[in-house]
Amino acid sequence: MPTLTGAVRSFVETGPILEVVDYSGGFTSGAGEFTPVLKRVAFSVPRAAFTAIVGETGSGKTLMALSILGIAPRSFRRTAGSVRFQGADLVPDDDKAMRRVRGAQISMVFQDARASLNPVFTVGYQISDVCRLHRHVGRKEAWQMAENMLERVRVPEPGRRMRQYPHEFSGGMAQRAQLAMALICHPSLLVLDEPTTGLDVTIQADILDLVVDLTASEGLSTLLITHDLGIVAETCDFVVVMKEGEVRETGTCEQVMTAPASPYTQQLLADSRLAGVPR
Amino acid sequence: MSAPAGLVPTQVEPGPLAGGDVVLRVSGLRKEFRAGRRGGAKKLTAVDGVSFNLHAGETVALVGESGSGKSTVARCIARLIEPTSGEVVLDDVVLTSMAKRDLPRAYRHLQMVFQDPNSSLNPRMSVRAILEEPLRLHFDMSRSERDQRARQLAEYVGLSAQQLDRYPRQLSGGQRQRVGIARALAVGPKVILLDEPTASLDVSVRGQILSLFRRTQDEKGLAYLFITHDLEVVRHFADRVLVMYLGGIVEEGPTAEVFEHPAHPYTQALLSSSPVAEYTRGNEHKRSKRRLLLTGEIPSPIDLPTGCRLVSRCPFVQPSCSSVVPPLRAIRPGHLSACPVLLAATNPNSQDEISFVA
Mind telling me how many Å the CA of B272 is from chain A's nearest CA? Predict the structure, then answer.
């Protein structure tokens, strides 16, 4: 586990792995009316550290994450800004280029794991498919890599599990399978969109511990999208607070949690601690 | 304790309800489902002998993971599903032995607020119609009286008069939950079952809804059975807490006591897993502690083994744990735990078994 100072040091030494620069965009309605949603969003994701985007419903946090991977809804239009990954601009409109990046260098884990796995293929097929695509390895080799990865994300009996279908997995196990799929090509950036929402707290704790461990042991950079400041407090090194499509505050976890500068962050913290609710 | 004038219709006499009296008594509640292929012979025990009391003006939290049976308990109490056995007594009325057709009358004193306001509000009814429906069922009121009541209720839960003519889809999640609360309050209940009422809400809205629950309780002496997995809400909101695991209560006690001195391994694991929005440097400590506490996932409730349900996941397991289901024993007055191993380790003098409907 990189200590905070370690993460800060790596940020200073090598620069961030991902930079979102004044990113703006919105949706065009059927009548041609444009509604801005993201407003000059700017933040960076340091290397080998755990960064969180935290915000409530409608803050634009998920849309921002999807935009990084170039998988925002088709009706979304970027009006300004860019996403820089490892020092170079990502071109979200170039599907061919983005496909090489997605899954190989940047991978994503979605909220509802069972819904994001394909129900008609075995879990093993879906995980090994990723490395056959990006690594150009044979079927057998890919299968073995996938099984090893399932074991690394602490799925018991990985050999048997590989041949099962997503509906035979519990929510927590399916999330591990998704994580295995995301990590099998050793990406440098892992984006997690509410990965534990809807899971029980003990399972949530297991999954987050696993992600924290993997982040540390693989030197992975992680961007976690969440609405839960409790999760932020317990896992993250850096925090980006979003509200209504704008970044309201960025800082280290300690700064944001102990001395929040923006009134919105202060309110969010008070609400999370149920400060306004009479005993 | 009587409700404030104007909120409860005049023809309703609030029952003689001294603060602290038992309003809801649940004893030996059991619910089994048939499970397996083609309605097979396998037995799924969702609730296995749950007993507790709820007092007037009290909030009791029922916590546990999905599959623990906590929602089934609420549904059995409201007889939305029929319990297999056990007794539910609401204010001297035995709900469980009541004929189905008499139940609606009993619901005047027992209401429920559901987790998902999208599916628990009829999308084709306006807010006004939703609020007037229970009034029509339970009271003999004129149209103008109903209309006036609906407006009072809306105002009470923080909805505007204009919103009365809206439909659920035109409201935000928080507003919809307010409609659900207003509907529950419409008939002047004594007990409200809250089934994860804040789970789908943003934290800012969660606080507003909890404040509304609190104000309503203070003003009307309502008793809440609060089903939730949000332990921060429990810590802040509940007077007592019941911890459920695989259909049985494994620990119960006053909230502060249970949070500070959890006496069952499952409660300890639950508490150490629950994220708290406070920055602490020593996260690794908490992580390694909870890794020690619990392994694996909640097992299937089909054909449960004898003995303690936590056996497959518990770090303190002893050979004796698999022989019989350990009963709840008192650690301190009002604080009970079903773990004899931890109990013996912490307090060897307190071995006498007590029945826990005290």
Answer: 8
Q: What count of residues does chain A have? A: 279
Q: Smallest Cβ distance to A271: which of B203, B296, B298?
A: B203
CA-nearest residue to B266 within chain A is A202
- The architecture (CATH level 2) of B21-121+188-275+282-358 comes to 3-Layer(aba) Sandwich (3.40)
Tokens encoding B141: 């009121």
B285 in contact with A, Cβ within 8 Å: no
Would you call A209 an interface residue with chain B, using a CB distance cutoff of 8 Å?
A: yes
Q: Does the distance separating the beta carbons of B232 and A233 come in below 8 Å?
A: no
Question: Rounded to whole angstroms, how far apart are CA atoms B339 and A129?
Answer: 47
Half-sphere exposure for B182 (CA within 13 Å, toward CB): 28
Helices then strands, counting H and E runs in chain B, come out as 12, 12
Tell which residue, A209, A8, A258, has the closest CA to residue B279: A258
Residue contact B236–A277, C-beta within 8 A: yes
Q: What are phi and psi of A253, to 5 degrees?
A: -55, -40
Q: Which residues contact A276 (CB under 8 A, 6 or more apart)?
A: A270, B207, B211
What chain A holds in terms of domains, given with CATH numbers, is: 4-105+187-272 (3.40.50.300), 116-186 (no CATH)
**CA of A259: which chain B residue's CA is closest?**
B279
**B211 vs A205, A234, A278: nearest CB:** A278
pLDDT per 10-residue tile (average), chain B, 358 residues: 38 39 94 76 88 95 91 93 94 90 88 88 95 92 94 94 93 92 94 92 92 94 94 94 95 96 93 87 64 75 82 88 90 92 68 35
Subunit contact A233:B279, Cβ cutoff 8 A = yes
**Residue B81 DSSP class:** S
Question: Which of B172, B166, B101, B97 has its CA nearest to residue B131?
Answer: B166
Closest-CA distance of chain A to residue B98, Å: 36
Distance from CA of B146 to the nearest CA of A (A): 31
Q: Tokens at residue A197, please?
A: 């929402």
A202 in contact with chain B, both atoms CB, cutoff 8 A: yes
What radius of gyration do chain B's Cα atoms show? 21
Contact yes or no for B321/B297 (Cβ under 8 A): no
CB–CB contact B277 A235 (8 Å):
no
Residue of chain B with shortest Cα separation from A253: B279
pLDDT for position A13? 53
Cβ pair B202:A227 closer than 8 A: yes
User: Following CA atoms A256, A257, A260, A263 in sequence, which dihedral angle do they give, to the nearest 10 degrees?
Assistant: 110
What is the C-alpha to C-alpha distance for residues B21 and B40, in angstroms, rounded to an integer?
44
Q: A244 at the B interface (CB within 8 A)?
A: no
Region A190-212: mean pLDDT is 91
- Measured CA to CA, the distance from residue A266 to residue B174 in angstroms comes to 21
Give the residue from chain B lying closest to A204, CA to CA.
B273
d(CA B111, CA B224): 10
CA–CA dist A8, B275 (Å, integer): 24
Check: pTM over 0.80? Answer yes or no: yes
Query: Binning pLDDT at 50, 70 and 90, where does residue A34 land?
Result: very high
